[in-house]
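Need residues for this backbone.
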């Protein structure tokens, strides 16, 4: 996991330089909540005697989709508005997009925004 590979990349990354790491944390938490509801829907349905527990699963899916969408539109370059999260998901090979996103030092589109040496 990229998270475990030390502070160097997170300290110097474009995400921390532009104070957008918290958006990633919000994304993780809301995605976790969505998965929790998605897989726990039947359990909560029994626990609270909900007639249609499938709605809980659907709510979990929706929370996951919304958190993904919010991350796509909100995590972006402050200079050129390049959508970093979306770029990572759509351009990187599946599996290493998160590492790619967290290890970028400057904006991939404009090479500005983070630690550009000035
Ligand atoms: Zn940029």
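Answer:
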């Amino acid at each position: 996991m990229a998270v475990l590979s030390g502070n160097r990349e997170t300290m110097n990354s474009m995400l921390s330089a532009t104070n957008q790491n918290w958006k990633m944390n919000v994304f993780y938490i809301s995605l976790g909540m969505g998965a929790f509801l998605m897989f726990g829907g039947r359990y909560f349905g029994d626990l609270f005697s909900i007639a249609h527990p499938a709605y809980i699963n659907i709510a979990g899916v929706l929370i996951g989709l919304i958190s993904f969408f919010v991350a796509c539109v909100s995590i972006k370059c402050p200079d050129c508005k390049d959508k970093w999260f979306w770029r990572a998901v759509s351009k990187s090979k599946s599996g290493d997009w998160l590492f790619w996103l967290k290890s970028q030092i400057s904006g991939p589109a404009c090479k500005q925004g983070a630690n550009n040496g000035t």
